[in-house]
Amino acid sequence: MRSTSKTPGVLRGYVLPALLLFALPLFGLWFAGHAQDRFDTRVLEAIEPQILRDKQLSETEREEALAFFRSASASEACIGSNEELANFRANLGDACSDAVQFGWMYRLSLGLVVLGVVSALIALLCGLAAFISRSFQYGSFVVGWSLLRVASAVQVAGQGGLAAWLSFWGTALWFQRYSPKLIIVVGLMAVVAVGMVVMAIFKRPSMDFEVEAEVLEESAAPEFWAQVRTLCEHLRTPPPDHILVGIDANFFVTESDVRVGGRTLSGRTLFVSISLLRLLERGEAEAVLAHEMGHLLGGDTGHGKRLAPKLAHFSDYLGTLYEGGMTRPVYYFMVAYRGLFELSLGKSRRASELAADRLAAEVTSGNEVARSLVKVGAYANFRERVEADLFGRNEQQQSVAIARRVAHGFAAYAQSEAVRDDLQGAVTPHPFDSHPPLAMRLENVGVKLGPDDMTQALLEPVESSWAEAFLEAEAIEARLWGAYESRFSEAHDMALAYRYRPSNDEERQHVEKHFPPLEFAAKEEGHEVQMDFAQVSCAQWEEPVLFEQVKSATSAERLFKKYLDLQLEGAGLFKGKRSVCLSKLEDGDAFLNAFGHYLGRHRTMQEYQSKSGEAA
């Protein structure tokens, strides 16, 4: 049943979009053949009457001539080098140039189809090889990424040229006319797409991994540092070079460079959550730490460090393909390859998590690993619930007080049915690994915990926490929570400005705080523009235009001047059109950007209000 339900999603989400890679080449293949047939037919239709009217030919010669021209196509004569068709080729003269174009486009289209098939085989083989082992995973991705980015660049260039060629011949062949503007637009789009792809191939990806935390110097927690080193000695792995403390609902270890507080830390870095340490007994926290050190021992972090730049470069490349317009079919193909590779990543990462759990159980105990998993999973889920509830509220909060709400409400949550539902499929949040479900992890360390056992573990008071070993634990928490809650409040404040359809003065003032009334001066009197969160008006218009009236907004150039054209809902093509001459404003670009910002707010508000109404 599971595979049946997932197959349509994979088919629609990855396979079918990836096949768009072949759409234009296959159409070009058909069109080139169709154009050659039309060319051959026209030539034959011109030759046959001449042969039939030629009185110097005997009946036998006439039949032989007709048979020759019907069997030897004009396109074959133009493209080929057969000496028997040399006279035919010479008589066709300049007309052959069209047939030569059709022939070249046929070859280009066929080459793109073949390249697509080869690319699909490379993607499939490299994707499957990634399942063999970790070394194969890295090697297969490097090979696949190296080959496919070149192949995709060739596809973009080839399909761009094919599209430009079709923009001329599509109309010329079927309608006996062509549009220079269409050819120029398609040609420019192709050039831009190729340029974007080439730059993306050589662009160095941003690898900044910034963590909201503070560096825990050894002098600030000597006992804790000593315990970490003891665990590492037991596991026979070098200790971390740095320890960071924060308030995120997770623990992790990495060998990638980490930015924290304006500093860049290199080497092995361990992140610990003070909030979670307060919830864990020392033995349970040591189980978590042993798990993280197990990633260092198993080479997981080293593998991640090597692979991360490649994945980041690939992600940036995908973003470029998505934004490139004509590159979208290539984007969907590359997404399908990334999806296949992510399956292998998920498989190996889950295996690494289970191995690290078993290692932690050997160092501490299976019961301590199990209890730590339950506590971390429950805390993460409850905090997410609290933050989602706060962010979903449609009134301003004087104080979000997330830390206090989580601390005061956790006991009630631990006794509710909600915690059981959450823990049944709980996956601990983590920036590097795909964690297996809680039930699988408990079975992996040989521990069975029923719902009552989990509730008991969550409600038992903590007798001794490693957070107590930090000299400034409370001060660090206060600083980090203060900064986090401030950002949360700002984000919620902005979200309300996008949600409100103001129904009172308070809501109106809140929206206007983020979207204040604006005025845009004109170079000459009578062209000034005013705008607020609900409407835009121009001195030349009889009345303002409400944003809810705007069906579409486009910028265009006419007679060397730039305009913003608005098409209004429920009106005719001409009566429902309003325009602002951007060239007559002192800062037309500023108005255009502000208009897009304000219109975007209005449409976001409409969508939110619509969904809220449906939910109600």
From TrEMBL:
This is M48 family metallopeptidase. Residues 261-445 form the Peptidase M48 domain. CDD domains: M48_Ste24p_like. InterPro entries: HtpX_protease, Peptidase_M48. It holds the Pfam family Peptidase_M48. It is found in: Cell membrane. The chain crosses the membrane at residues 14-32, 110-132, 152-175, 182-202. Its cofactor is Zn(2+). It is a multi-pass membrane protein. Keywords: Cell membrane, Hydrolase, Membrane, Metal-binding, Metalloprotease, Protease, Transmembrane, Transmembrane helix, Zinc.
